[in-house]
Amino acid sequence: MSTVVDQGADRDRDVDDAELLIAFIVYQLYRMVLAPTVGLAALTIFDAAIAWLTWREYRRGPVANQKRTGSIGSA
């Protein structure tokens, strides 16, 4: 039973990580308005892709993870 609770904590941490990444993306966009560079644009696109992948995995939830691994509590 504790593994289900632990997975819930992992999902919450994933969302917090995505929110932090989105905050960085917003700051990067602000910096690009002030002084655009190719490197910062590439980093922002990469960060947006990671945020999208994190959101997509969060949306799938623990049921999708159970189907892939065979059980909710497996490590």
Question: Would you write up a description of this structure?
Answer:
- The protein has 75 residues and is mainly α.
- The chain has a domain at 10-61.
- It contains two helices and no strands.
- Helix 1 (2-34) packs antiparallel against helix 2 (38-69).
- The radius of gyration is 16 Å and the shape is elongated.
- Helical segment tally? 2
- Characterize the quaternary organization of these chains: single chain
Which band does the percent of strand residues land in?
A: under 5%
Mean pLDDT: 77
Distance between the termini: 14 Å
Q: What string gives the helices and strands in order? A: HH
- Tell me the total number of β-strands: 0
Largest sheet: none
Low-pLDDT segments: none
Gyration radius over CA: 16 Å
Helix content: over 70%
Protein traits:
about 80 residues; mainly alpha; membrane
Summarize the structure.
This protein has 75 residues and is mostly helical.
Topology:
Blueprint: H1 2-34, H2 38-69
